[in-house]
Amino acid sequence: MHSDSASINMSHNLHGTFVSEKINKIRWRPGGIQSLNLFVTGSIDNEKNTIKLWDFCENDEENDIYPFTISSYMYDGDVADIQFINQDYFACASSSGSVHLMNIAVQSSGDMLLNNYMEWDKIHYFNNGEASCCTALAIYENDLVSVGEDGRINVLTAQSKNVIRSIDDADSCSLGCVLFLKHNEILTSNLRGQMKIWDLRSQTNTPTKTFMLSGDQVTPTCLIFHPTQRHLVIAGDELGAITTWDLRQNTFPVNVLNAHEGSINEIHFHPDHPDQLFSCSSAGEIWHWSTKNKHQSFMGLEDSDVNVWLAPDNVKNKLEVFTLMPTLGKSINTLDLNKNKVICGCANEAIYLINGINL
Amino acid sequence: MSQDDAKIFLIPNELCRRAGLGATWKPLNQFAVFPHERRTVRQKDIPSNFASTAQSSVFLVQHSIILYHPILRKLVNESSGTFLTVQSTVSSKSSEFKGEILKLSRQYRSIIRACLENLQDEIGKNNITNSERDELRDYITIFYSIECIWHLCEILFIDVIPGNIVLPYLLDWVRFHFPKHERNAALLISGDVTSLELHEDYWPTVFGNFLQGRIKIVRTLLRQNSAFGSSVFQLVDEVLKTMPTYNVINSISINEFNLQWKHWTTDIQLKIDAKQFITNHNLNLLMRLIVGEEEAWAEIQSHCETWYEFLAGWLFYTEPSVKSFELGQFAKLSIRKMRIKDHMKHLDRVLLAAMEFDLFEVIKEIQHMTENGWFVCHLADILHHSGSLSVLEKEVENFTSENLRESFLLDYGTILMGHSSLWEVGLNYLDYCQNIGLQAVELLLPRIPFSTETKAHKLIREARNRELHSVAQSICKIQGTRSLKRGRVGNALTWALKSQDGPFTSYLADLVLKKYIENGELNSTDLLDNLGSCMLASDRLIFLGKYNEFHKLYQAGEYKECGHLLISLLASKIVPKYFWSVLLSEAIPLLESEELVFSANDTYTIQHCLEEKEAIPQLADKISILRLAAARNLSRALMFEAQLAQ
């Protein structure tokens, strides 16, 4: 299912802006109507990286939509991950091994300002004293888990500056992704595609389950769960495949889809439309996956309870893929969605807003 | 570069002054300067007198690259998109090719203009220092010139001009770059109407628009004059109204137009001779300009900022059907008339060269602009694809358009590769260098610094996409070695496996095994448990994997299975020399176990190994126990097997 078979859906508007830095993570600010157009970005590969709060200023008359920076925060190291806890707080992972809790503060003047509310300094490090990149974060209410290249898992909470728990040699390889399966259970993936489930209540520093992405040492690049069915876990990997598990059943993948050219950089389910999936890749593709015949199932002619992603075979036939943007030949590093708007950060130091997605 | 062009930098360091300087390249656009005493081969190889344990400094000298400025980074990124479109348009060989290329050339210019606008906005901000403001002004000057040159080159070398009648295009170009007159006219007309002619800008604006061929504006301005009712104004208005125009749409032939024009000017000349305009000097001057009177044109020169503004006006009235190849001679004439031959600026020289169709000169000159090759790279590329550069191949020996373009692409791409973020854009340019682009990538890619595994992955992917497997391998090796230094053997092993680096894998497996001999603990068991087919990367790893399996079976109490594995390992010929004593010692508890583990044949294998390896010093204190255990096991096994046989 490569780009040539994916049709370009031109019905939505595309707005690009060059921002003079490479955006590695982009996230809509969650929450109420007043924050509909606000988003944050984190940069990489700069001498001085930044976290920025933006507003997509919409001007209906001129059809001229462009983002402007509300607040900018100098950040130490590459921004490896950003996760919102609620509309005012989000956590950032740094390649310097630190994790920061950032706050979007409203000043008395009404202006918004980014500031660093809490810092867990250098909680990822190697035994020789070198800093280790903190590669990913997962959030469950106020609880945070960070993983890093040092193979360490840190359990944090937004209420305390102390690290609640640290599993030092959780993995002999670098950890790249982490996901909360339950409030006390996390899933990690490492450089070799080894997936481990950890019970955070257990006192032993060993995983409760271990399984492999595939036999070929493929590195997973992103991990997500289904918005309404948390046991349904999907991983994107460096070779462009999408692997699905139903962790209720067992740890063998339900299906593996060869999707993108190049590595998959991010995957997101639409929070309000769980049958819709969005993915982007290092080859510059950004795709919208949608279930076929959804109207049919809506009318009750088909069993609408069956999750397409759990279908063991012919998943491809049940899905439609739309290309959201003509490829620019450069990696799309990150994407996020809110209602019918998709934003993404591209390796050509630009961010794009795609408006009016057909859901 | 001549000696005079050399830049001199002072290194403020005492030790450097006394000992002398050494320098070495630091990829990609820096070099390190340090105190260094020069030695010749004849001198003895002894520590320098200047050497000491005191701290000394290393200075990094860096080529400052304006394209790294945040505003110009937008230009770099945006134009790279257009560059890629140009390349794909070329490879698609569309029938609309010429038109597409022209469109893309305009796209480049609009990117430059957007950049100029951004620079202008930035200058207006309060929070910048004076030196920053000066810097921005320099950028504006540079990119203004670039746009001006590009526009002219687009007209002369890219656009297809019907009938080669270049003047309308030339006027557009001049109007575009001297928008002042039109702006002033708009201000005047929209302002206080009654005493317009008293305004100091009034006549300069009339002449300015007149020279740009904006006859409608000239007539409007004249109509606003309070003396418009007079006969001389009426007459001039009438004359201007009847000016013949040439364009492709009204489908008159060029000959017809020339004839009309001749009639029109002859008529004006008659009126001038009859002194019909004499009452108003300015109007008289306008009419004399139309008929091309030398003194009139000399008088108007002072209204022109540049020779090319003059040129466009002059040609409009005296040579309206000028062909593009005739431009050069008229350009030189204008320069002579304006008397600026001896103080031509860089921009003047480039524009003149372009009008003379001397593309070599154009490219030579724009190479020396200080925007790090952005301009010459993109212009040469589009000129190459439009076919203008290849025309020169016939004229000049050993010249190929492709090679010239490639050399500029290579320079520009290399500059971008030196930037921590723009390297990805740089790769795009190197990819389109057919001859040595790949080799350049092969050299540059491994020199891009990386500190995270994400970036390592990115670099490896770029290398693999170009089938530069040795580069990918070397990046894996670097990351592996780093992991090792950090005490992460498991991670190092994964990187070794990712690049299928057999020797490195073996080296790491050895490390794990030796560590085990030291402290009795196997490292990275989570990895070893799930090796799968990767194990086949090296014999040593197979052994390590199998040995780990042996451990697991032993711990699980599966002694029978354990014994089989041990025997097959002993017989396998992949046991490392230093590990024999450990492996044979592992046999003792199994030989002595309550349940019979080894068959007679198995025991022979163990005994055979013992005989072969008895010389190993580490075995010295165990060998007698082993022999005894083996003998006892053999007796048990023989009896057991004999019973079975019965």
What does this structure look like?
The complex is a heterodimer of chains A (359) and B (646). Chain A has 359 residues and is mostly beta strands. Chain A has one domain (3-355): YVTN repeat-like/Quinoprotein amine dehydrogenase (Methylamine Dehydrogenase, Chain H, 7 Propeller). Chain A is built from two helices and 29 strands. In chain A, the strands form seven sheets. Chain A has a five-stranded mixed beta sheet. In chain A, strands 2-29-28-27 form a four-stranded antiparallel beta sheet, with no helix packed on it. Chain A is globular. Chain A starts with 6 loop residues before the first strand and ends with a strand. Chain B has a three-stranded antiparallel beta sheet with strand order 1-2-3. The mean pLDDT of chain B is 91. Chain B is elongated, with a radius of gyration of 42 Å. Chain B is an all-alpha fold and 646 residues long. Chain B has helices at residues 14-19, 70-92, 97-123, 130-158, 167-177, 180-190, 202-211, 215-223, 231-241, 254-273, 281-290, 294-300, 307-318, 327-338, 346-355, 359-367, 374-386, 392-395, 401-417, 423-431, 437-444, 453-465, 469-485, 489-498, 502-519, 525-528, 539-555, 559-570, 580-591, 600-613, 623-645; strands at 21-26, 30-35, 59-62. Classes of the chains: A mainly beta (359), B mainly alpha (646). At the A-B interface, loops of A face helix 2, helix 20, helix 22, helix 24 and helix 26 of B. Chain A: It comes from Sitophilus oryzae.
Fold blueprint:
The complex is a heterodimer of chains A (359) and B (646).
Chain A: E1 7-8, E2 13-18, E3 22-28, E4 38-44, E5 49-57, E6 66-75, E7 79-84, E8 89-94, E9 99-106, E10 112-120, E11 134-140, E12 143-148, E13 153-157, E14 165-167, E15 175-182, E16 185-190, E17 194-199, E18 209-212, E19 220-225, E20 232-237, E21 241-246, E22 255-258, E23 264-269, E24 277-281, E25 286-291, H1 294-298, H2 315-318, E26 319-323, E27 332-338, E28 341-346, E29 350-355
Parallel strand pairs in A: 1-26
Antiparallel strand pairs in A: 2-29, 3-4, 4-5, 5-6, 7-8, 8-9, 9-10, 11-12, 12-13, 13-14, 15-16, 16-17, 17-18, 19-20, 20-21, 21-22, 23-24, 24-25, 25-26, 27-28, 28-29
Chain B: H1 14-19, E1 21-26, E2 30-35, E3 59-62, H2 70-92, H3 97-123, H4 130-158, H5 167-177, H6 180-190, H7 202-211, H8 215-223, H9 231-241, H10 254-273, H11 281-290, H12 294-300, H13 307-318, H14 327-338, H15 346-355, H16 359-367, H17 374-386, H18 392-395, H19 401-417, H20 423-431, H21 437-444, H22 453-465, H23 469-485, H24 489-498, H25 502-519, H26 525-528, H27 539-555, H28 559-570, H29 580-591, H30 600-613, H31 623-645
Antiparallel strand pairs in B: 1-2, 2-3
Helix pairs in contact in B: 2-3, 2-17, 3-4, 4-5, 4-15, 4-17, 5-13, 6-7, 7-8, 8-9, 10-11, 11-12, 13-14, 14-15, 15-16, 17-19, 19-20, 20-21, 22-23, 23-24, 24-25, 25-27, 27-28, 28-29, 29-31, 30-31
